[in-house]
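Q: Hi! First time doing this. I have a protein sequence and I read that you can turn it into a structure. Is that right? Here it is:
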Amino acid sequence: MRRVVITGLGAITPLGLDVETTWNNLKNGVIGIAPITHFDTQEHIVKLAAEVKGFDPKEYMDRKNARKYDVFSQFAIAAAKEAILNSGLNIVKEDPYRIGIIIGSGIGGLGTIEKEEKKLIEKGPGRVSPSLIPKIITNMAAGNVAIETGFKGINTNIVTACASATHSIGEAFKSIVFGTAEAIVCGGTESSIVPLGIAGFANMTALSTNEDPATASRPFDKDRDGFVMGEGAGILVLEELEHAKKRGANILAEIVGYGATCDAYHLTSPDPEGTGAAKAMEFAMKQAGVNPTEISYVNAHGTSTPYNDHFETLAIKKAFGKHAYNLKINSTKSMTGHLLGAAGGVEAVAVIKSIVDQFVHPTMGLETSGEYCDLNYVPYKGEETKIDYAISNSLGFGGHNASLLFKKYTD
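A: Yes, that's right. Below is the predicted 3D structure, encoded as structure tokens:
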């Protein structure tokens, strides 16, 4: 099997506009949740979100081009350019048809849909922008990154709700293993902190109505009451090992396993037995030829919803048996909020930085573990720990489960 390594990382998050700022804030327990500023929340029951702060698309792309892109595409371009720069990939020195892009988004251009629908109602169909469709469709993040970078290999996107980025990274891994690309820019992006997005999730009782930023997102806590919406992008450059070594790339970690399953149970609720999520982790370990006892860290989906945290804990116990109690488990969403289709990308970045630094960031907001949530979730203070193998989980509406298994790189 062709080995696949990670040579570049990029991030636009509520904790920072690059990987290092985001990672340092995660290590230090900084919470990126605050009152919503993107719109007036007076009539909304949800007042908080994890917004990206200080982002100026003109710093990452031509002003004229920036106007053509919805915010979710802008985030993807910015994070992808950081990852590519970090990796040292040079379009001039590469066969562009051997470098691909797979970037997922769960929702796409929801803000643009709102804006143009208002024009339709108030001013008539003739005033709807001709750019509406190419701005909103989810594949345009990957398409626009290709336009900005010139890479012409496989270009697609995965849409599996909150598992979109993790599936995108997993499918990129498979593509390189099977020889269809030498490198792939992959991950996820999302920008849905808009009135329709907040109202939709709030009315299905998925969002926290807590108005305290410090405790609104509190995964695994007994008083958790829903997730906090986040936004941003997390992008990786995956590369075939020999290709990376030949060009002298800085190898950050290796990806060795990918598991994907479906609960086939409910539109929004995870399987209460946790079987599907457990199988995704088991499949990732089986592909890698790794025993559960070799894993030391799991970055959980950890949304801070009552069902997810309970059922994911059960899934971890099923996949790891007694070793579950030896694992370090955390939730990046306790600080970034839930980035929906981008969540798995940002969390993969966090896992890779954890492997590089041999450090597990804390789960914030966790004061008293909830019923059935009895594992080590690393509350409030991060820990230095030996990490040879780590798993990142994502679970999406529709029962989509995805797990990525990363390894400390050794030649």
